[in-house]
Known about the structure:
The protein is mainly α. It has helices spanning 7-17, 32-54. The termini are far apart.
Amino acid sequence: xxxxxxxxxxxxxxxxxxxxxxxxxxxxxxxxxxxxxxxxxxxxxxxxxxxxxxxxxxxxxxxxxx
Length: 66
């Protein structure tokens, strides 16, 4: 199961590591630490989506727009 031969890691490499070169570390893709980071990001995205549904909100804001 471990490894970086999943399509999601190709997308992370393309859209995150290559776009944010200053902080992204591609040596962690496919490791347990990398999996944990992907899982945490997925949970945060799903939590935001659920909150938007509960509060009938379409866009995320920083509060200044509200």
